[in-house]
Input
Amino acid sequence: MATDNIIKIKNVSFSYPESDAPAIDNISFNVKRGSWTSIIGHNGSGKSTIIRLINGLLVPDENGSPSIEVDGIKLTDDTVWEVRNRVGIVFQNPDNQFVGATVADDVAFGLENRGIPHSEMVKIVPEAIKAVGMSEYTNAEPANLSGGQKQRVAIAGILAIKPKIIVLDEATSMLDPEGRNQILSIVKDMKEKYDLTVISITHDIDEANMADQVLVMNDGKLITQGSTKTVFSQVSLLKNIGLDVPFFEQIKEKLQQDAIKLPDNLDSEKELINYLCQLNSKM
Amino acid sequence: MSKILIGRYVAGDSIVYRMDPRGKLLATILFILFVFLANNPISYLIVTIFSLAAVAATKLKPKIFWDGVKPLIWLILFTSFLQLFFTVGGTVYWRWTIFALSSYGFTNAIFIFIRFTVIILISTVMTVTTKPLEIADAIEWLLKPLKLIRIPVDKIALVMSIALRFVPTLFDETFKIMNAQRSRGADFNNGGLVTRAKAITPLLVPLFINSLETAIDLSTAMESRGYRGDKGRTKFRVLKWSNVDFINLFYFVLLLGLLLVFRTH
Amino acid sequence: MSIKFKNVSYIYSPETPLAKKGLDNVSFELKDGTFNAIIGHTGSGKSTLMQHFNALIKPTTGKIEIAGTTITPETTNKNLKDLRRHVSLVFQFPETQLFENTVLDDIAFGPKNFGYENEKALESAKYWLKRVGLSEEIGKRSPFELSGGQMRRVAIAGVMAYEPDILCLDEPAAGLDPEARKQMMALFSDYQKQGHTVILVTHNMDDVAKYADNVLVMEQGKLIKQDTPTEIFKDRKWLQEHHLEEPKASLFAGKLTNYKFTEMPLSINNLVKEIENNLKG
Output
């Protein structure tokens, strides 16, 4: 159970009606249950379109017999609401997803839509608000909250419906570093606590580096995928399509250019630092 | 400007704040109807005492209520003056062409003045002690019978609450765009009417486009969060009647009784 | 002609229960033709400070001298055009300010307001369209057909097209992808090198380290430090006390515990050089 694929995407393409080039061009990939997947690529590479296909906001082109499966459910017109019960999305703009008049109302929105009785809502809502550390703002109005706080409320609204998958659709890109770090640490905790699968679409290389699996998109195509190790060591490929590389990979590259020999297995910043410190103490 | 749109809610704590918004809305409407029953000095005295008691029960500063009356004071005085000079009857003290000062004129002017003022006072009691959202909830409840003739009351209510929620956001946006265009040399303060009307395009177009984008984003978010119309939807925000509300309504029944007894038949 | 702030304070909603100090007795001087960064937490007064530069906000007390204009609490909203022609502000997410039918018209809006002849305004618009990295063909399109990143470039061209002496930017690269971010920052750096003053409000310490000559640190409405990036980022303890981030290079250097650094490296090149010096002994 622990290692099955919670998302299976096969031969999926998508074109926007007014455009001739497909936004998504024949993509297939799987996401393991309980894993963290990052999708990176420059603006307009099709990252966000994939998410809208996964929860049925968009419907894939018919050619190539596409199939999308979420938590064992094949996505069709009839199952779309079942799929949406399993996928919670935190969108980019903190203001444009805050539906409720207050924090509590907003967190309850998803529950109201699913017809959860009032007696249960009054139990679930404060719990979800507490999980994101917003209890003292329960009755606050969105106008009095920072962007980061609004995104925390968005996460609470998702936790309330107990989904299997949480998607961050550039959810931290409009926040300051403090807000961004808070959101990422909350999502990390929640992932462990509720055994969630996380998909994060991001430009932030540190955020992408939190993943088990990285997908790289360019012009609607999935150009490479794999562990952070395999993807981020392809420094020149990433640079060619205008993407960042984790800082420690940049240092490795520069040291090696200057003929300093590094072993192949330095796969994280920590390992690089340990190695460099050892190297220095030997001298 | 912002006060008119966002409502005039003033934070406070008194028995009026703890009342159910439905009760307050109902009482306000009833009061406005009842005031028209008053037709002699004693019944006008009753409505005056009653509305002043309501004002006192809010425990707010009188200035807040004066702020409610102030914008309309000229209208009230003007209407009262019309009554004063155009009512004929009783003892006539002075007459000039169509104008006349009569005893009926005096009493009518005073009655009109009181009627206007107490209606504004009671509405102010409602609006300063009830959040716009609660008023929206109360209106929704009041409109519920319309469901029978298939008017989508729940949808209207959701639209109202979302609209209210986005008012401050829209204001922020407006100020931000104004400042951005000012930085680009736009001038919103000077020039004649035509110049000013033209100057507002760089403000209105972005506001309209941004609102549209917000609406699209919001509908995407709502659909993702499982919104599929009213069917099977439950409500988190519920209003509860309490004893205070029954006592409040009882007072209004009492008012009705007193007016019916003391008015001139 | 430098920019001078003398004891500037600003109070939001004065004489109400909500009164809040936006700026608290801020004094500083910025030299002409420099690249300045303003850093500090959200709510530290950075944006309030920025809006003083072209008198969108006037000080409650104190005096500002900028681009030949003196701004005091008594300054009225009239006759500010000359100031705003020389001091330009770019707000966060400036793409929300676009409104014209075509991209070129939108870029030309500022120049026209500041007295450029029609033809000259369009000429300048064309030039700046190119400078921000967009093709001529885009000039004829509606700004609302463009991608978010392209709209951002158009908006920024619209503020640079009348070539203000002082360009103030609030997080101009927020939400852009890394490549677009680099291009944007290079554009501002070039602009400064051509003899203009640039003031950048940002959270990105790598940009601060790379481009700024001078850094202002704000906290709770007060200016708590003004210095060069080297000096600001040297004192790690002070940065931590004020919850400020470090550039990636110095952060990495700090973790190399048994290395000796002659100077705190602020760029990756300096960092690598210092590492190599250590290894060579």
In short: The radius of gyration of chain B is 24 Å. DSSP finds twelve helices and two strands in chain B.
